[in-house]
Design brief:
heterodimer, A: about 575 residues, alpha/beta, Glutaredoxin, Rossmann fold, Ubiquitin-like (UB roll), 23 helices, globular, B: about 170 residues, alpha+beta, Arc Repressor Mutant, subunit A, 2 domains, four-stranded mixed beta sheet, 4 strands
Chain lengths: ~575, ~170
């Protein structure tokens, strides 16, 4: 048998590294059992995950494995008897998480070994670039992408073929192909997963793009916060070079393409393509005026094309299976599949790839299993700081660019953060404005100062200092920033505020007029109280209270002294009887 | 070279290999600063001046780049750099409580270092481990599904480890 440990960043954070080491120790001197790694299968809520294979057939998927289970796993691997690991085998319900998905960009994730090019080649790897270089012209490639309907997966949703064609048509010998792997949206991690789990797929997609536009140099701009992704991609580039798949005369043809990695240094605005180019050139990542577009005048003033990781990850599949196969999935205006990072207050969090056209409800309830602790769904945040919050009434919205845009949110890069009744929507808007105010590059006054003023107003509201007219003032600022900002960051920064005002205006009004936070999240607007009926007088809360604000004697109901209470919530956390409540 | 501020006295010879490799490749300023930070742990002022001189940039340009990106630090950091994720999923799942617990335990706020030089706390943008939120990363190791108690026990383990190493 072969034991494969899922070793993406999520898996490792959950303890996959320790599981691997424990297995490695036990398997020393046992050549009949092999041990390997794979990337992220996307079922983050079940990590660490260990797969048992016999002759390339998956025999069992073990979930929530700990190092203590290593011994039993080895016993099973040696004997083939699954009874040793019965308690770890994935449930049928959890298997549904994967079976309801359609995987194209993620098709190899959690299946192949990302550190071994041979494994990728066995899974049809580099067959697409071979087909392209030997049987297709660059125009044919662009036509195939046009037929597929593939649109940019980074957020804007611009047709990929159009950008490729524009770069192809641009005059000049020297052109650049750039991959935007500066995945800055808080709550989105599909690009990290693709690079960590299937780096050769990205390389192959980029090679096809480079051939289509006529670039001889390709650069991957990766976030510095993703050390494992950088390491795996470095390794993959070295492997591909050694096989003659990168460099001069690739696969014996005239096509030459070098590839290198540039580590970003932490700036959300660098997800904007002209800011990314500035950063690649070693400067502050401040956006440029468009036009000229990068396709005409980009990196070092040469024609350049920039696509996102997920966009490239779809390309080899499209070239192998045909544009029609891709466009057969999805809706009229959005073709193919999209990967979402399903997180927040959700039972089954992880990476979900689905055909466009599924509804939000299907993703959140059927795949994601619904809300944690069976609480009430309140909203789903899509598109990160550029997106918006979609309320319960709109759960049946289909996932496509147009329908999501109509709600005020955006498809974005695919962050899908689920919120329950305990999330305050005003605090949520403040959270995003805090982010964009910090990340604004400072070039345009409306964005630099406007986001700061909006943050101040939102902070005031959450602290109980809101005034009449604040909502209208926020709206006015929102439209001024949208109109006055140069780049996508500023133009979309007001979206979280606009959507929360649109759908949750009553929460703003409760904060401002009644000085109440309906979600009981804003500490300035809540008071802690002990329910005398439920309190058993165990004294635990009084012992834990850092402010000595709880009085009471053993076996008698306790009381919180409101003027001393610092609202740290310690008492509520430690109370075993649910007696501490907020009002 | 002489530094106009005299605040730091770094061994600039350590930079020679980095500068030799990158200074003639255009657009390498960020890479040079990253390598310099790997060497010194932060970007001392004299290092910034030296890089400016060697790469033909003004100190203002180099300083401008160093202060634009969150990765660069202008002050030394502790042995353990705690990067506490402030992403959306972590926020929704209570990262503020983790921050409060760490702040109370170590007596430092975001961006500060403990007096013993052991810990630096830095609140960072999304680390991309959203399903395990709340998350923190300490010296490239990620810790997920944190509770205030779990976070403090991790810090205590590191403190113990550092004590043993001495």
């Amino acid at each position: 048998m072969r034991i494969v440990v899922g070793s993406g960043s999520c898996g490792i954070a959950a303890g996959a590294g320790k599981v691997y080491s424990a297995l490695e120790c036990l398997l020393a001197g046992k050549p009949e059992v092999t041990l390997g790694v794979t990337g992220c299968i996307g079922m983050c809520y079940l990590e660490p995950i260990v797969d048992l294979y016999e002759e390339d057939v998956l025999k069992a998927r073990l979930v929530k494995v700990s190092e203590k289970d290593a011994e039993n796993i080895v016993k099973t691997a040696e004997s083939g008897d699954l009874s040793f690991v019965e308690n770890l085998i994935i449930s049928a319900d959890d298997e549904n998480f994967l079976s309801q998905q359609t995987r194209i960009a993620l098709r190899h994730c959690g299946v192949i070994d990302p550190t071994d090019i041979e494994d990728y080649m066995r899974a049809d790897g580099y067959k697409a670039i071979e087909k392209v270089l030997t049987t297709m012209t660059p125009e044919d490639v662009i036509e195939t992408i046009k037929v597929s309907g593939l649109a940019g997966r980074g957020g804007a949703g611009f047709p990929t073929w159009f950008k490729w064609n524009a770069a192809r048509q641009s005059q000049g010998e020297e052109k650049y192909l750039i991959c935007n792997a500066d995945e800055g949206d808080p709550g989105a991690f599909m690009d990290r997963a693709v690079i960590e789990s299937d780096p050769h797929n990205l390389i192959e997609g980029m090679l096809i793009g480079a051939y289509a536009i006529g670039a001889k140099e390709a650069v991957v701009y990766v976030r510095a916060e993703y050390p494992l992704a950088i390491k795996r991609l470095e390794n993959a580039i070295t492997e591909a070079k050694a096989k003659g798949l990168l460099g001069k005369n690739i696969l014996g043809t005239d096509f030459c393409c070098e590839m290198r990695i540039k580590a970003g240094a932490g700036a959300f605005v660098c997800g904007e393509e002209t800011a990314l180019i500035e950063s690649l050139e070693g400067s502050r990542g401040m956006p440029r005026l468009k036009p000229p577009f990068p396709a005409q005048c980009g990196y070092w003033q040469k024609p350049s094309n920039i696509n996102n990781v997920e966009t490239f990850a779809n390309v080899p599949w499209i070239l192998l299976n045909g544009g029609e196969a891709f466009s057969a999935m999805g809706t009229e205006n959005s073709k193919g599949t999209k990967v979402f990072a399903l997180t927040g207050k959700i039972k089954k969090g992880g990476l979900v790839e689905i055909p466009m056209g599924m509804t939000l409800r299907e993703v959140i309830y059927n795949i994601g299993g619904g809300i944690k602790d069976d609480k009430e769904f309140k909203a789903v945040q899509m598109g990160g700081p550029s997106g918006g919050c979609i309320p319960k009434d709109l759960l049946d919205t289909v996932i496509d660019y147009k329908a999501l845009g109509a709600t005020g949110a955006i498809m974005g890069s695919g962050g899908m953060v689920v919120m329950d009744e305990s999330t305050c929507m005003v605090a949520m808007a403040k959270f995003f404005l805090d982010f964009t105010a910090k990340e604004s590059c400072g070039k345009c006054v409306p964005c630099r100062i406007g986001t700061k003023r909006m943050l101040e107003i939102l902070t005031r509201i959450t602290e109980g200092e809101g005034k009449e007219g604040d909502i209208e003032l926020l709206e006015e600022l929102c439209y001024a920033i949208k109109d006055g900002a140069l780049c996508g960051l500023g133009q979309t920064a007001p979206n979280p505020v606009l959507t929360t005002i649109r759908y949750f205006r009553h929460e703003y009004e409760a904060h401002i007029n009644d000085k109440k936070c309906p979600a009981h999240e804003c500490t300035s607007l809540i008071t802690y109280e002990i329910d005398k009926e439920k309190c058993r007088g165990c004294t635990l809360c009084a012992k834990k209270c850092p402010a000595n604000a709880i009085i009471g004697t053993l076996k008698n109901p306790h009381e919180i002294l409101t003027d001393k209470c610092i609202k740290c919530s310690q008492c509520r956390t430690v109370c075993k009887f649910g007696a501490v409540k907020t009002i | 070279m002489s530094c106009s501020c005299n605040h730091s006295n770094s061994d600039l010879s350590l930079l020679v290999p980095v500068l030799n490799e990158y200074k003639n490749i255009k657009g390498s300023l960020i890479t040079i600063l990253q390598k310099a930070q790997d060497i010194y742990g932060y970007l001392p002022t004299d290092v910034i001046y030296h890089i400016a001189k060697e790469t033909g940039n003004t100190p203002a340009k180099v300083m401008g780049v160093a202060t634009f990106y969150t990765q660069f630090r202008l002050t030394p950091v502790g042995k353990y750099l705690i990067m506490l994720c402030q992403g959306t999923a972590c926020h929704v799942n209570g990262s503020e409580r983790i921050e409060a617990a760490i702040t109370e335990e170590l007596g430092i706020k975001d961006g500060e270092t403990t007096e013993d030089g052991l810990f630096t706390l830095k609140c960072v943008a999304c680390l991309g481990c959203c399903s395990l939120s709340p998350v923190m990363m300490i010296n490239e190791e990620t810790y997920g599904s944190l509770t205030p108690e779990k976070a403090i026990s991790i810090l205590n383990d590191l403190r113990k480890k550092a004590g043993e190493e001495e």
